[in-house]
């Protein structure tokens, strides 16, 4: 990147509404929200305290952006309408799940996750404190030995009609109601007809989420992928063996040499969605096939070196 480009690189700050802001949006006004909570024996105090901590952390993060760098702030709800520039520096301020929401809209931009409230959020992806923003902003654009880029693998679902979805954590293929999904699953050279609660395809980033609960519940001995490893793990949820369906192909991995594809046999209700966002889905009904694979894109997350 040229010196002029470094000076002009834009910082894109991404946030989501606080619990208090969501509450007010639901009820229309602060007073009405407070009244409705009180009528059920609840207090608005927790929402106010959480809002204050989050706004305090966000304020510190914004103050850390160098004054010579332009920045813009957008809400999670506006991501599908926002045009990222190739040299944008993306700063996500909030919970770890917000990083997964943003990842599929990025294409190589350096990304910083900032935790505005360590008492509320784990900070697995948003691991940086607001007071580190100034150093991180400079490091991500100009380079600094204290920080490095962690190229996290994304999963991709590609349908035979050209529709596709990207996921940082996991992709779900199944029925929209999570009831019995019917499909044919092909892993490598093996194929089975299934009736199950759906299929989860997880990345290394998703290994600590939905996939982890499946592994623990079923006491599976499977080596989950690392966050930068070009490998995915897949799990069939509650496969049901019957005269028409089988259950031996219920767990496995995807890499460059081991493809996974699924053909829908659901006349209605079949869906594919990514990272838990059911509203952003692909209809997956009879006659449609999807290939689950490692995406070419990576999430370039700025992390401490070493």
Rg, alpha carbons: 21 Å
Named CATH topology of the largest domain: Tumour Suppressor Smad4
- CATH-assigned homologous superfamily of the largest domain: Probable inorganic polyphosphate/atp-NAD kinase, domain 2
CATH architecture designation of the largest domain: Sandwich
Query: Which regions have little confidence, pLDDT < 50, spanning 5+ residues?
Result: 1-6
For the sheet with most strands, the description reads:
10 strands, mixed
Counting structural domains, the number is: 2
In helices, the fraction of residues equals 10-25%
For the record, the CATH class of the largest domain is Mainly Beta
User: Approximately what portion of the residues adopt beta-strand conformation?
Assistant: 25-35%
Q: Given the C-alpha coordinates, what overall shape results?
A: globular
Distance between the termini: 24 Å
């Amino acid at each position: 990147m040229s010196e002029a480009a470094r000076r002009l690189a834009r910082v894109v700050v991404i946030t989501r509404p606080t619990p208090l802001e969501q509450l007010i949006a639901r009820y229309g006004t602060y007073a009405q929200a407070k009244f409705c909570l009180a009528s059920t024996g609840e207090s608005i105090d927790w929402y106010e305290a959480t809002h204050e901590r989050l706004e305090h952390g966000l304020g510190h993060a914004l103050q850390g952006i160098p004054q010579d760098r332009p920045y813009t702030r957008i809400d999670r709800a506006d991501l599908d309408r926002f045009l990222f520039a190739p040299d944008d520096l993306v700063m996500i301020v909030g919970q770890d799940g917000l990083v997964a929401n943003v990842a599929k809209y990025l294409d190589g931009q350096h990304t910083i996750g900032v935790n505005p409230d360590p008492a509320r959020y784990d900070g697995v992806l948003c691991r940086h404190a607001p007071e580190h923003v100034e150093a991180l902003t400079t490091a991500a654009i100009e380079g600094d030995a204290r920080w490095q880029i962690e190229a996290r693998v994304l999963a991709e679902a590609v349908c035979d009609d050209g529709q596709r979805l990207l996921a940082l954590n996991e992709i779900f293929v199944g029925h929209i109601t999570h009831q019995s999904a019917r499909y044919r699953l092909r892993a490598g050279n093996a194929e089975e007809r299934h009736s199950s609660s759906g299929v989860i395809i997880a990345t290394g980033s998703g290994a600590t989420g939905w996939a982890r609960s499946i592994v623990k519940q079923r006491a599976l001995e499977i080596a989950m992928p690392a966050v930068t490893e070009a490998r995915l793990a897949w799990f069939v949820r509650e496969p049901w063996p019957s005269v028409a369906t089988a259950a031996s192909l219920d767990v496995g991995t995807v890499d460059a040499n081991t493809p996974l594809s699924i053909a829908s046999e659901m006349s209605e209700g079949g869906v594919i969605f990514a990272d838990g966002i059911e509203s952003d889905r692909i209809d997956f009904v009879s006659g449609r096939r999807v290939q689950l694979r490692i995406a070419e894109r990576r999430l370039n997350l700025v992390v401490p070196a070493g």
